Amino acid sequence: MGAKIRGKNISRHKRNTLKWRPLPPNAIAMLFRIHKEGQTLIGLIGLSLLLLNVALWIMAPLLFWPVVVLSAILFVLVLQFFRNPPRPIPVRDNQLVYAPADGRVCVIEEVFEPEYFKEKRLQISIFMSPLNVHVNRNPVSGTVTYFRYHQGKYLVAWHPKSSTENERTTAVYDTGFAQILIRQVAGALAKRIKWYIKEGDRVEQGVDMGFIKFGSRVDLYLPIHSKIEVALNQQVKGNLTVVARLD
């Protein structure tokens, strides 16, 4: 693996997180809309917490208010994890590679990609903590020419071997002038990867391509001469931050 490319000052990259388009009048409701992957779980958790608190009110009233507060905190944390805010692409351009997920840039380096390209590629990895939005989106438009699901381990998502040893999916997008690979990687807490694409699909930049539950990462493998537009440890937003430009 090549040496890590040192990122530039993060402040110089703030311009790459493009401004959000104006939202419609029901913007607040849209900002707190829940992803379909969490709707059943949230319903079950909400019902369980309600029954627990009713039981405490009847059987142990002294514990009622502390447990109500803890229940509310837990429920809000689950809600924020499954939130799915609208993220329209500011500028549709296949030379711009948008962040496929929210999170922190944890890797920028030249690596040998062994699964599909079998050559050196530029890797950009985004770590998603449990507090981030966990929707994964298409970084470019194109045709899905390769897709594989791999069972694996559940190492912490920032572990160097998580990209090749953890449970993961690999998809390759052909834009017509370049090929990029995106990999969803499960982390120590994430036990389920969801994907909405398959080989042969024609996909659009910015549209949902998957979801990973409870802490994970997404890797991008770009042509070696791509221009990096983010820095190590920079916080990025899916569909808003340009992470690279393709030549």
Describe this entry's structure for a reader.
It is a single chain. By secondary structure, this protein is of the alpha+beta class. It has two domains: 34-81; 91-245, Glucose Permease (Domain IIA) (Distorted Sandwich). It has helices at residues 27-31, 39-59, 61-81, 162-165, and strands at 96-98, 103-113, 119-128, 135-137, 142-150, 168-174, 179-186, 193-195, 202-203, 208-212, 216-222, 227-228, 235-236, 242-245. An eight-stranded antiparallel β-sheet has the order 9-5-6-7-11-3-2-13. A hairpin with a 5-residue loop joins strand 2 (103-113) and strand 3. It is elongated and about 65 Å long. The model is unreliable at 1-15 (pLDDT under 50).
Task: Provide a quick synopsis of the model.
The protein has helices spanning about 25-30, 40-60, 60-80, 160-165, and strands at about 95-100, 105-115, 120-130, 135, 140-150, 170-175, 180-185, 195, 200-205, 210, 215-220, 225-230, 235, 240-245. It has about 250 residues and is an alpha+beta fold.
